[in-house]
Amino acid sequence: MEELDLLKKDWKKNENSFDQISEVDIYKMIHKKSSSIVKWILIISILEVLLWTGISVFYNSDDYLIKTHNEYLIEYFKYLTYFNYAVIAVFIYNFYKNYKAISTITSTKQLMKDILKTRKTVKYYVWYNLGMMAISMVIGFVLVFSVDPKMHQLMSKSNALLLMILFCVVCIAFFVGLFWLFYRLIYGILLRRLHRNYNELKKIDL
User: Fold this and answer.
1) d(CA 154, CA 125)
2) Within 13 A of 86's CA, how many CA atoms are on the CB side?
């Protein structure tokens, strides 16, 4: 935001004669930065989907289900996958709509509304992904414990079930926490920049 700070200083020096021009210049700069941030949110979300799709190609759970004679579960996982992709597609579509809305030159108030809408959409997207990850891991652990004969033997031992549950809870908490940090780092930086832009627009709109 160094350029914006320099522009604001110049505005203050010449506020008596150049109020109107400086305000427009500041708005244009914030508008351009906001549009760029939302474009990156859209790009990162698409790359994320491509990454998980690539991973799922190399790791196929169908083979494990067939090996353990639980082919009937393949259909359920397919429906869950379709549902997840459908929800993600809706989020990406909303990111695209937000990008198009912010890219269009609008009033200061409308740009502020679009920034708030984008921030809210990203937060819902992050929490959905974290929630889906936790649910998928729980389903995965339950599946392994219920269909794998080796796990049945292991859990028949004393205190084995309690240790397994504790292990699952720790694993889920670790991976969900790890991805929360990832989202916090990637999307958090972009959202903080959007928030700064929103605060600058509030000053202009006063």
Assistant:
1) 38
2) 6
- Distance CA(55)–CA(66), nearest Å, equals 20
Whether 35 and 99 have beta carbons less than 8 Å apart is answered as: yes
Q: What is the pLDDT of residues 181-198, one digit of tens each?
A: 989 898 989 999 998 888
Stated pTM of the model: 0.78
**pLDDT tens-digit map of 119-145:** 999 999 999 999 998 998 888 787 777
Q: Is 141 helix (H, G, I), strand (E, B) or coil?
A: helix
Q: Are 194 and 37 in contact (CB under 8 A)?
A: yes
d(CA 65, CA 121): 36
N residues, the chain? 206
Read off the tokens for 81: 């996958």
Least Cα distance to 62 among 52, 51, 76 occurs for 76
Measured over all CA atoms, what is the biggest interatomic distance in the chain, rounded to whole angstroms? 84
